[in-house]
Amino acid sequence: MSNDALIVEGITKRIGAKKIVDDVHFQVKKGEIFGLLGPNGAGKTTIIRMIVGLINRTSGKVHVNGYDLDSDYNEVLNNIGAIVENPEFYGYMSGYKNLLHYARMARQVISKERIAEVVRLVHLEDALNQKVKTYSLGMRQRLGVAQAILHSPAILILDEPTNGLDPKGMKEFRNYLRELANQGTSVLVSSHLLSEMQLMCDRFAIIEKGKLIHIEAIDEAAELEEETLQEVTFTLNNSKKANDILAANNKIITSINENQMSLSLPYHDIAEINRLLVEAGCDIYEITVTKKTLEDRFLEITNKEKEVVKS
């Protein structure tokens, strides 16, 4: 049995002579949070709309939990929960009555126990009986996720879900998505907020001008970071002595002042530099590593892609 909750095979969307999405392939594993990264207008929302059947594909295939979107449309819908736009609810009704209303419209029987379960998962117990018009944006997002997972879908699909959320709301959102993934629900989330995606996702794909140009696991990016040169700053008591010691050991210092010096070196060389300085009698007060962010990685990958296109 496949370990993939979602398989996207060569989906393309053409409007006239223009390709909005061009031959995109990827898989989302069961229990994984997978991110689609790219600037606004890159094609992320079009990809999501094709996956959930809101717009037609020009070509390509979509499989959800083993079902084909074309031949098993109803089964695919039963296995997808999605928030493509901002979640809409009846403001004059309570959160609970909204969920009860959606449960009654579902293709399968959804018990009150299931409603209580998803409410606990998104931490809305205290506000459940309040009218939705009193909810903050973050609370509405949580209610939207609760509604989308009422029928226990194999995959939850979210388009720019953290737009407008404050830092506290973003953190809460990340936490309950991780809880969902830990319980086996896959999550496909699109965003242009790279710092949030770095904290949220297990793997990410970069979409640029309708093309998927790169897929990478977050932990792979971290491993790569350890092998690449990074800016490392040592705060110490005697930078002149440190400079002499490192020069004698063929180490190149990129900047130096009275009590700080910086070097460009791989992560695993930091311990060696520290040992050389301590053995030479230098007191080390602090070591600071300027780590690459997902934004740095994104720019590195997209710039390489541009160079390939130019050549």
From TrEMBL:
Coiled coil: none
Keywords noted in UniProt: ATP-binding, Nucleotide-binding, Transport
InterPro entries the UniProt entry points to: AAA+_ATPase, ABC_transporter-like_ATP-bd, ABC_transporter-like_CS, P-loop_NTPase
GO MF annotations in UniProt: ATP binding
Domain ABC transporter, first and last residues per copy: 6-234
Family affiliation: Belongs to the ABC transporter superfamily.
Name listed for the protein in its UniProt record: ABC-2 type transport system ATP-binding protein
